[in-house]
Structure formats: C-alpha cells, structure tokens
Write a structure and sequence with these properties.
The N and C termini lie far apart (64 Å). By secondary structure, the chain is an alpha/beta fold. β19 and β20 form a beta hairpin. It is globular, with a radius of gyration of 23 Å. Among the domains are: 242 residues, ANL, N-terminal domain (Rossmann fold, 3-Layer(aba) Sandwich); 96 residues, ANL, C-terminal domain (GMP Synthetase, Chain A, domain 3). Helices cover 28% and strands 25% of the residues.
Length: 541
C-alpha cells in the first residue's frame, strides 16, 4: 500500500521559486568582474533566470543539452545555476584553474553546446576554442559597454541576450531524477571524470546543507561562498542559501584577505565557507591591519586539512568558530562537518581544538565505513585506519559515460582516502591512497608530474610527494634520480614543466637522490619518501 501524499518532484527551479515568493526582498550582493558592487534580490534573480531560460531556448538549447560556465562567484553565475537547470538542460561548471588541455578535453567530453564565460576567461577560451568542436556559441558574461574584442566565433553578450526576453516563463515540470548539472573530478591518473548530478540529489544535498549540523543556514544569516562556484557546486551554498532565504554575498575574483574582510564587514556576513588558503589570507590581513570582524560567527573549511593553529587563532583572536568539513566532487560534495554532539557542551578549549582537526561526522543521508585490504569493515575506535567508503542520497552511482568504476557490488564508493572513525562517528583522514596532492583546496596529480619529469633526458627516475606548506597546506616536491653522466639542474627540470601543466601544478623544489625506495616487486615506496623528507623546508615556504 502506498501513502496518500502529493508527489511533487524535487526540482532546482522550485528552490528559486520559493526564495522569490517568501524572501523576494532579501539581497544578493556581488563584486563584479567589471569592478562595481552589484545588488539585487531573489525576486530579481527569479525574473532574470527565466529570461536566461528563454534566451537558451532561442539559441537552440534543448532539455539534456550541456551548457558550460567559466565564471567567478557572482549574480550572473547564480542565474546560470538556476536558468540552465530549471529549463531542463545541464549546467556544467568548468574549473578554469585546470590546465588548458584538460579544459578542452572536458568541453569535448561533455559535448557542451554553449560556453558562458566571465571577462577574465576570454583569453583562455580563445586559446582552446578550435579544439572545442562541440561548442556552437560563446556568451560573454557582461554588458554591451564592456564587451571585449575577441577572436571567439559566434559570440553573444549576456546582458543583450537577457534584455531581448521578458520574465514571462513557466518553469517546466519533469522527473526529479533528470540530470541537472555536472562537474569533472580530476584524480591521479587519466583524464578528468564527469560527475552528473540530478535535481533530486541536488535538492536533497541543499536541504541537508542548510541544517544545523551541516552549514546551519537560516533566513537571518548572510552567507558568503568563498569556495568558487566553478568547484563542486560551491558546496551547495547557492541552493541552500535560497532554500533558507539567507542573504548571499558573492566575492567575485578578489579573494585576498583585505577584499574578503571588506565583504564580510560591509555586508554583515555571518557564515562563510572555503579552502584554508582563503582563511589564512584573512588571518594574515587581520593580524597586520589590527582590524576585526563583528558579525562573522563561523567559517566552514574544506578542500584541505585545516591546521589546528588556524582554529585556535580564529577563535581566540577574533571569536570565529572554525568548522572542519569533508567531501568530494562525487558526493555533491558535502559528507561531514565537525559540529559538537550532545554531551560535549563542557569540553575544554584544548579538547575542542583536538576534535576540530578531524573532518567531522556525517549528517543523515551519508553512510561511511572504513575497510582493510580484504574489504572487511574495521572497528570505529579512532585508532584503526583503512580505506574510507561512502554511500548516500547524493553520492554518484557511476561516472558520466561510465569512464572508470565508481562503486562496489554493495553500492559503496571508494573515496581513495585512508581514515579513522571514532566511537562518536567523527572521521579523520590520515592519508590518501591515491597519492594525490591537495594544494590550496585543489588537487595535483603526483603521477602526471612524475611522468613528465621522466620524459626529460637527464632523468632516470622521479617521484613527487606533497610536503607541508604554511599557506597552501602542501606543495609538490620533485625527487629525482639523474641519469648516469647527467648534470641536469633543478632549474632545468622546473622549466621543463612550463606549458605542460598549469603553473600552480609545477613543483616548488627538486631534491636529488641516488636511488628511490621500492618494494620487492618494484613498486615505489612513497611512504618511505614521505618519512625521508618529513620536515623538508621548501624555498618559498
């Protein structure tokens, strides 16, 4: 017997409809790429998102078509989040920090028909447009006054497109399992893999993100997504904020400490979320300037491990609570947030700081476990560590075009992280089985860097590991065994990477050794290398 309840589909358009109806006057504030601060509200965003949907239809976009974005956090990008998905197409957020070859691969693999881009990224697109054969048009996200001269073919002006339409548009209704958006996840090997989200998974993730034990967003908050909207749905904040009716503050491209502080203070930001690099920059600015923060309650930190010292300084100097979080592109992305549990009200500051270095506990909707090499579950005692596996309502079932295995026979997704889970459910990542390097919240493939180095005629063997960095959490160190008779220098090798990978991927230093450690079967022992180079001081650290 089925329940006698209404079966209304969970659609992204319904979130914006709700925000426009019940929180229509609540502000959305953006720092524009063009310079000025832009202000409007949820009611305005609804009308403009509908105009965008009508524009897309006029340009030939149909349900299921992929529409790419290369854009900062701003009101136009927000309109794409809702307008593209709302009309039944797929909003594909492309990370412009990837190497140009990866971006062109992603555009082709997704078969994007239109690319929307902020002014910042026009030169990038000009360099790869010829390789993006599926793309039929480019839309520059600006007004006619600021339209650039460009070699891009079939170019449109965003504001001119919207001005040609009215807001008389009814959001279509369709199955909630329809694809809504996509991001590509780059790991250690191979090409980036597409993660295809549904309307249902996105709405459920936003609902969870809004709750007290996740991002804790209410209509009285002003939330600033410092995590970019081109990176894993901006952790769901553009949806969760609208669902709660919270004021949104979009920082644009200016992410230095002073600019972030100005947005926090000018707009009364209470909550923000981003990678540790952003908050280290803010802390540095506050310490140097003597400024403080008035309404800022807490910041959620993910992407890389949050240093214990950051939690201490944020709380003791400025009264801001740091909340460690963890997730993955394949998880929409939120999996855990480090809120205290009932019974922890009297914990000491030291106990709280010790707890806060862990990645946190899952909310309802996410299951997790740790297993050994035989896939046997390990005890959740805070000491046993093994591979972390997850499953849940907003975890991907398989990659786009099924490029690589995604989960096991029981539906568990292998994260590639090695972790412990304690008796209270708090998970702590201790290592990464994939040997991927996380720098400033972004992933760097150690294997790809090794393969490039080995291609140099003066290199016999190479390995890349992440070493500690005070600002970026970790940075790549290239470890090289020279070919016999070779005198290749560190400068030669670092220059060898230019044009082959993104600049921020290039290792910070090179160490030369006589031989690399291997197992009996010839496998490189990176754990031994990490032990050998523990405490290694990078030249720019």
């Amino acid at each position: 017997m089925l329940g006698l309840m209404m079966d209304k589909p969970l659609l992204i358009s319904s979130v914006l409809e709700y925000a426009a109806k019940y929180h229509g006057g609540t502000e959305i504030v953006s720092r524009m790429v063009e310079g000025p601060i832009h202000r409007y509200n949820y009611a305005d965003a609804q009308v403009r998102s509908k105009r965008l949907a009508k524009s897309l239809t006029r340009l030939g976009i149909a349900p299921g078509d992929r529409v790419a974005t290369l854009a900062w956090n701003g009101f136009r990008h927000l309109e794409l989040y809702y307008g593209v998905s709302g009309m039944g197409a797929i909003c594909h957020m492309v990370n412009p920090r990837l190497f140009s070859g990866q971006i062109s691969y992603i555009l082709e693999n997704a078969e994007d028909k239109i690319v929307f881009a902020d002014l910042t990224f026009v030169p990038l697109l000009e360099g790869i447009a010829a390789e993006a054969t599926s793309v039929k048009a480019f839309v520059i996200m600006t007004d006619e006054t600021n339209m650039p001269d460009t070699s891009l073919p079939n170019v449109y002006c965003y504001e001119k497109l919207l001005a040609a339409e009215d807001g008389n548009y009814d959001w279509p209704q369709f199955d909630e399992n329809t694809a809504s958006s996509m991001c590509y996840s780059s790991g250690t090997t191979g090409n980036p893999k597409g993660v295809l989200y549904s309307h249902r998974s996105t709405v459920l993730h936003a609902w969870a993100a809004m709750t007290p034990d996740m991002l804790n967003i209410s209509a009285t908050d002003a939330i600033m997504p410092a995590v970019p909207m081109f990176h894993v749905n901006a952790w769901g904040i553009p949806y969760a904020a609208a669902m709660a009716g919270a004021k949104m503050v979009m920082p644009g491209a200016e992410m230095d400490g002073e600019s972030i502080h100005r947005m926090i203070e000018d707009e009364g930001v209470t909550i923000s979320a981003g990678v540790p690099t952003v908050w280290l920059g803010l802390l540095d600015y506050l310490d140097r300037s003597g400024n403080t923060v008035e309404k800022f309650k807490y910041c959620v930190i993910g992407g890389s491990a949050a240093p214990r010292a950051m939690s201490v300084d944020m709380h003791e100097k400025y009264g801001v609570q740091v909340l460690h979080a963890w997730g993955m592109t394949e998880m929409s992305p939120l999996g855990t947030v480090n809120w205290p549990k009932n019974g922890m009200e009297g914990e000491t500051d030291e106990a709280r700081y010790d707890r806060q270095v862990k990645q946190g506990r899952p909310c309802y909707g996410i299951d997790m476990k740790i297993v050994n090499d035989a896939n046997d579950p390990l005890p959740e005692d805070g000491k046993s560590f093994g591979e972390l596996k997850v499953r849940g309502f907003w975890v991907c079932s398989e990659y786009y075009r099924a490029e690589g295995a995604s989960h096991d026979s029981e539906g568990w997704f292998p994260t590639g992280d090695v972790a412990t889970i304690d008796s209270d459910g708090y998970m702590h990542v201790t290592d990464r089985s994939k040997d991927v390097i996380k720098s400033g919240g972004e992933w760097i493939s150690s294997i790809e860097l090794e393969n490039i180095a080995i291609g140099h005629p003066g290199v016999f063997e190479a390995a890349v590991i992440g070493v500690s960095h005070p600002k970026w959490d970790e940075r790549p160190l290239l470890i090289v065994v020279r070919n016999e008779g070779s005198d290749v220098s560190a400068e030669d090798l670092l220059a060898f990477y230019e044009g082959k990978v993104a600049k921020w991927w290039i290792p910070d230093d090179v160490a030369f050794i006589d031989e690399l450690p291997h197992t009996a079967t010839g496998k490189l022992l990176k754990m031994d290398l990490r032990n050998i180079f523990e405490g290694y001081k990078l030249p720019k650290a």
